[in-house]
Structure formats: structure tokens, C-alpha cells
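Appendix C reproduces, verbatim, an entry submitted by the partner laboratory led by Prof. M.T., so that reviewers can inspect both the input and the predicted structure.
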Amino acid sequence: MHALLNLKALAALCAAVGSWLAYKIFLGTRSRARTTLLRGPPAKNWLFGVSKQVLDGDAAKMFEDWTKEYGPVFQVPRPLGARQIVLTDPKAVAHFYSKESTTYMKSEFIKAIITSVVNIGRL
């Protein structure tokens, strides 16, 4: 009886993980269909994107090199096939943070962090 409960719990966990992965894959393919494809470094691994490279190396140097190679706006591969857009142009960054619309969605947590960083810079 105890082994049957463990098997059911394992099956439920596998189903939850599988559902989460399917959801992430769905979001990744859906976002690609709605956004402009930008140049950027290739993913060394679909599972990790470039996260492993960034963690193992000099992240600042990598992003600096990518900015020189791909320009001030590029994308980097994230885990599970997702993509992240990187802005290094000050005008583009100012435009992004000045707009309050559904185009550039920012959570309340991110807004609080941005506010605190800007207020620290004014001290």
C-alpha cells in the first residue's frame, strides 16, 4: 500500500513537471511568433541557453563583446528555448522605462526596484 502511494506521488510530480515544461515551451514558441527576431549569440544548449556560459565566464566581458558584435539591442538565449532582449542603448533604455503600457509590462516588484535604484543614484 505504501509503495502504491509513493508511485502515485511520483506520477503526480512527473505530470506537474511535464505540464510546466509544456507551458514554458508554448510560451517560448508563442513569443517568437509575436516579436521581431533579433540577432544574438547562439545557444550552446537548448536546456540552459547561454546561462552556463555566463555563469562560468566573465559575464560583463561577454555582454560587452556581444554588444560590439550584435549592436545595442540583441537577444540572448535563455533556458528551455526562451529569449531575453538586452538593451544597451541609453535612449532605448529610457524609452522602455518611461512607457507605461501593455507593450512594456513591468511588475510592481520590478517598478519598486527601479525606483530604489534611481533614488540611490540621486543621493
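The beta strands are 73-77, 83-87. Additional entries are available on request from the coordinating office.
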